[in-house]
Amino acid sequence: MLSAYPELVEFLPCTSPEAWVKWAVENETTLLVDHAHCEKKAASTAMSLMYRYVDRDNLLHKMSQLAREELLHFEQVHKIMRDRGVVYEHMTASRYADGLRKHIRTHEPARLVDTMIIGAFVEARSCERFAVLIPHLDDTLAKFYRSLLKSEARHFKDYLSLAEEYAGESIDERVQFFREIEHQLIIDPDDEFRVHSGPPKAA
User: Fold this and answer.
1) Looking at the domain assignment, is residue 124 inside a domain?
2) The domain that contains 43 carries what CATH number?
3) Which DSSP letter does residue 138 get?
4) Is residue 203 part of a domain?
5) Which residue from 66, 77, 168 is spatially nearest to 122, judged by alpha carbons?
6) Which residues pair with 200 in a beta bridge?
7) What molecular function terms (GO) are annotated for this protein (predicted)?
8) How far apart are CA 47 and CA 66, in angstroms?
9) What share of the chain is helix, strand, coil (3-state, %, to 5)?
10) For 66-89, what is each residue's pLDDT tens digit?
């Protein structure tokens, strides 16, 4: 299913562990609630970048579009939750995003470049996880997640192209740095299931 997005597959360091896929299927309610939070956070991140980097024209254009799409996805997830009687409630975040963001450099444009690279990893991983879940979901959820693949893959490309545009030099070394961190975050076990968690800890 991800064969249509070879750049994304090559970008990620690994596929999601089978144990995580099984965990997700067993925790559909948590999957939906956390997915809704992820879409809302993605829209918020895009808006924050628009406020911080008001002089970056291409960033403003791409992040404005991304924020609208992420909010639409939030509305779609929320509707599915309402239809299934799933309550939207507060949920603690996984260690994934913070595990990446704590390595962001503090000077510009390095800070912006790192933020864009991390955004690319988050979107690429989301796309990959939706894809691996589709065969295990009911028809309604499978159709919904299939509909998200194209936009998530485009968001990945947008973030990566912005990182390249504003770096002024090759970002290969920095991408590899975050790829190694992302790999560890994905394979290390977690106590709680989340969209971006690792596999469950052994009992």
Assistant:
1) yes
2) 1.20.1260.10
3) -
4) no
5) 66
6) 190
7) tRNA 2-(methylsulfanyl)-N(6)-isopentenyladenosine(37) hydroxylase activity
8) 9
9) 75, 0, 25
10) 999 999 999 999 999 999 999 999
Cis peptide before 13 (omega within 30 of 0): no
Query: Cβ distance 130 to 112 under 8 Å?
Result: no
Dist CA 26 CA 48 (whole Å): 34
pLDDT at 53 over 90: yes
Distance CA 70, CA 39 (A): 5
Q: Number of folded domains in the chain? A: 1
First-to-last alpha carbon distance for the chain, in angstroms, is 32
Domain residue limits at 39: 15-187
Q: Nearest-CA neighbor of 49 among 172, 193, 158?
A: 158
What the block records as the tokens of 142 is 């499978």
Longest dimension (CA), the chain: 51
Tell me, yes or no, whether 4 lies in a domain.
no
Q: Assess whether pLDDT exceeds 70 at residue 26.
A: yes
pLDDT band of residue 135 (cuts 50, 70, 90) is: very high
Contacts of 8 (CB under 8 A, 6+ apart): 2, 124, 127, 128, 153, 156
pLDDT, tens digit, 9 for 90 and up, residues 153-199: 999 999 999 999 999 999 999 999 999 999 999 999 999 999 999 99
Q: Tell me what pLDDT residue 3 has.
A: 87
Distance CA 138, CA 125 (A): 21
Q: Is 33 part of a structural domain of the chain? A: yes
Q: What is the pLDDT of residue 203?
A: 62
Q: What is the pTM of this model?
A: 0.97
